[in-house]
Amino acid sequence: MTEMFGAGLLSIAAFVAVISFVVVIHEMGHLYAGRLFGVHAEVFSIGFGPTLATWSDKTGTVWRLAAMPLGGYVRFRGDENAASAPNHKELEALRASRTDAHTVFHFKPVWQRAIIVAAGPLANFVLAIVVFAALGMARGEVISAPLVGGVQAGSPAEVAGFEVGDEVVSVNGSAVRSFTQISQAVMTRPGQPIRFVVERDGEQVILNATPRREVRADGLGGERAMGFLGVSSAPGQREQVRYSLLEAPVYGVTRTWDTASMIGEYMVRLVTGRASLEMINGPIGIATTAGQVANVSVAAPQGAEVALNQRIWAMLLSLAALSAVISVALGLMNLLPIPVLDGGHLVYYAYEAVTQRAPSLAVQEIGFRIGVGLVLTLLVVATWNDLSYLRGLFF
Description:
51% of the residues lie in helices and 20% in strands. The protein is an alpha+beta fold and 395 residues long.
């Protein structure tokens, strides 16, 4: 019972640390881009719900720590709510007074507003680059050569014609440098045809395979539905690489781009009906994964004696890697052209830049309601997936 209680507390702490870190960086992108153009931020909130603590900085911004660490927001002067919807009554008063009009977000030129809004997702991508670069120096990565070491009988790989010794050159036209890239491409494409180019006996061979959907262990103590191909990596073809101070930034950019490409491609296939909704996760899923990562990392390997400080260090590195992935996902999600998200605001600003007038209040109100509906729908789907995973984890 004591161990379970301790694991639960560690899970909660890991979730709060990961989500708060990523969201605060996102909102700071908005905050400091706004300050660059003289926009006054009235409130910077870490979390939602009842206020636990507040303090003010020298610019007059009230920093707020709230009870529910499930996000956060920055509210600029003239905003009605955390989604940056304009407070029209306040804006009319500010426009009439002219005293503080130059500090109002909604009165800034459209290009400045666009930069301020885009700065949040951009901050997430920069964070991911920095974290991946630091991880590249701290622990490096294990690169498994994209060589086929085994083909499971009766698997989609055998049906497609894979053979032991094949070197995978590309997957759906994208070059491959490690076996991990093959696994990631297959995992998110159950039931979807994939075009592989392999090198065999000095010649390139095209193989078309369709991974089948299977519920398999996810390496964190649970099981998830994923694509299964049926090939394994060649033994003895792994290399531990650690990057120098000069190499690490390139590695950080590469990892961030690969992660963004994988998530972005899944989003496109989801919108076009070529991917399942069951891989969407919400706050509960993030909390579960953060807890699993923390507990798996801090636990001593069976039969081995590992110092506590080494286990804590391993946990911090694993949570940092998770933060980088979530940061990329948050950045991409916020760029979706859905009103209430940053991408929706950017669509409005693009319209304003072309037509020289903002969308009507009626259009913005309808867009806001549609956006809220879409976000809530995604949240319901994600929560269902999260609860289904938890049910399989504990029952």
